[in-house]
Amino acid sequence: MSDDYSCFDIDLADGIATVTLCRGDELNTMTTAFWGELPALVRELDATGNARAMVLASTGRHFSAGMDLAVFAGDGGGGTAEKGRTRANLRANVLHLQETFSCLEKARMPVLAAIQGGCIGGAVDMVTACDMRYATEDAFFCIQEINIGMTADVGTLQRLPKLIPDGVCRELAYTGRRMPAGEAKSVGLVNEVFPDHESLLAGVHAVAVEIASKSPLAIWGTKEMVRYARDHSTTDALDHIATWQAGMFHPTDMVESFTAKAEGRDPEFEDLRPFRGGIADGV
């Protein structure tokens, strides 16, 4: 793994990649560098083939205060540039920001978010793209964009309504109020609430260990099917899993599971094949 990241610390051990926002003193705001580093490191981890689960953690008082104000410091469509080309570039920039978080969904390994303190603005966009979310008792979630006069545009309004009740999502999006961790758990936004940051990290790591013990090919297929079913009809999703199984299902990992159980040991599964230069090994 590259260590040339200014916004993140990365540790990969025993199949678990822990990616930690490391600018706690600056509230882990999302600087210009952040938007390039996150997709780069996620794709790099995914490409190794030996990251079976990823924990997205943070440092400091807050998980993240969202977009750094410097990111908004561009022209904003003003000046003398031709308007059509300027607005087209703005759209392209928004799509780039969206892909920064969509890469979390597209990665082959599940991504677990460990959230302490404030999860604000762009941070909500980020964690809603993760597979699961866990929080400390002092955590809160805020769709901050409405409080600064804009519409959230990097994923919150597309993913959050599929995670929590529609009316609750609308209230959060229209009012910009803070949702505390207890309420977030009650509506299904977070899986579990822990008393403090230390127990949060330990608890999330334990879930990641359990995931990493499973067949990584079966986990990849499961993640892909859940994501696909969210965005398609039941009929389309059933057709998709049938096609997936026709190509991906082989009895090797199933045989290992049964053999390990019979022998009273933990199963041992081969890592996923790595990607190099965008090409999968072994094809």
Given helix and strand content, the structural type is alpha/beta
Provide the gyration radius in Å. 20 Å
Let me know the average pLDDT. Answer: 94
Uncertain regions: pLDDT < 50 for 5+ in a row? none
CATH class of the largest domain: Alpha Beta
Task: Provide the spatial order of strands within the biggest beta sheet.
Answer: 1-2-3-4-6-9
Number of strands: 11
Biggest sheet character: 6 strands, mixed
Share in helix: 40-55%
CATH-derived topology of the largest domain: 2-enoyl-CoA Hydratase, Chain A, domain 1
β-strand amount: 15-25%
Would you identify the CATH architecture of the largest domain? Alpha-Beta Complex
What is the helix/strand order? EEHEHEEHEEHHEHEHHHHEE
- CATH 4th-level superfamily of the largest domain: 2-enoyl-CoA Hydratase, Chain A, domain 1
Strand and helix layout:
Blueprint: E1 8-13, E2 16-21, H1 32-48, E3 53-57, H2 83-106, E4 111-115, E5 118-120, H3 122-128, E6 132-136, E7 140-142, H4 156-159, H5 166-175, E8 178-180, H6 181-186, E9 192-194, H7 197-212, H8 216-231, H9 234-248, H10 252-263, E10 275-276, E11 279-280
Parallel strand pairs: 2-3, 3-4, 4-6, 5-7, 6-9
Antiparallel strand pairs: 1-2, 7-8, 10-11
Helix pairs in contact: 1-2, 8-9
Description:
This protein folds into two domains: 8-212, 2-enoyl-CoA Hydratase, Chain A, domain 1 (Alpha-Beta Complex), CATH 3.90.226; 216-280, Lyase 2-enoyl-coa Hydratase, Chain  A, domain 2. α1 (32-48) packs parallel to α2 (83-106) and α8 (216-231) packs antiparallel against α9 (234-248). A six-stranded mixed sheet has the order 1-2-3-4-6-9, with helices on both faces. Strands 5-7-8 form a three-stranded mixed sheet. It is globular. It contains ten helices and eleven strands. The chain is α/β, with parallel strands linked by helices and 283 residues long.
